[in-house]
Amino acid sequence: MRMNQYLPVGHPLNKIYRIGTGLIGAGLIVFGLLGFINRLTFFSTEGDRILGLSSNGLLSLISVLVGAILIGSAVIGGVVASTTAVVLGVAFLLSGLVNLALLETRFNLLAFEMRNVVFSLVVGMLLLFLGLYGRLSGGLSEDNPFVRARHHEDPHADHRAEETAERRRLAEIRPLADAENAVAQGIATPEQERLVAEDARERSEAARREAYRRYEEEHAADAVPAQEQRRQQSSRRGSHGRHRRWPTIRT
Length: 251
Hints:
Elements: H1 12-37, E1 48-50, E2 53-55, H2 57-76, H3 78-101, H4 114-132, H5 145-150, H6 160-185, H7 190-242
Helix pairs in contact: 1-2, 1-3, 1-4, 2-3, 3-4, 6-7
Keywords: Membrane, Transmembrane, Transmembrane helix
Region (Disordered): 181-251
Transmembrane segments: 16-37, 58-80, 86-105, 117-136
């Protein structure tokens, strides 16, 4: 199945991806258009101030293009928006690091200043966090669309019954866990001590029954070969009796 089947339009993750990429894309487009309105020199390494950042014509063009890509991915939504955010987030981080090395050189074609470097790194981290949100974590729930996709599960499967049963099981064992912790710390109440003692007694009984069961199984398994051996010995004795020859008596 395609990943889009696991991430329906109304899913909260889809809304987060769309809103996040749309807002960042719109901000970049506004920044780029203001550069065009101010008729910035295209390849100037000095740059002019736009919204507190240094910019030139080339940076304005790149900002508009990247913003358009982000808004286009927001319109599509789903995994497209998430993946686009991750890719562009990495690009912004690399841009910030590369342009940091090019500051105050003739190769500073985007007219970057330290403010631009910081802005590029911050936007890159925001895009990475946005794109990976709900996709990369050790604590994703079983009904997460990306978890379902990895396990090739039905995207429309309802796991509420299993989740309710799991919550009920955790609620049942929570008092015992608290009681064991209190006993270990020496601050248990009489009720908690009784609960731990009953649990220990039940575990002991269960272990004893399991030991008896295994003993009976092993004893039964050993008894079968012994019975088979006795049967074979009895069969051999009968066979020797049938074929025994009596000596001939001559007169």
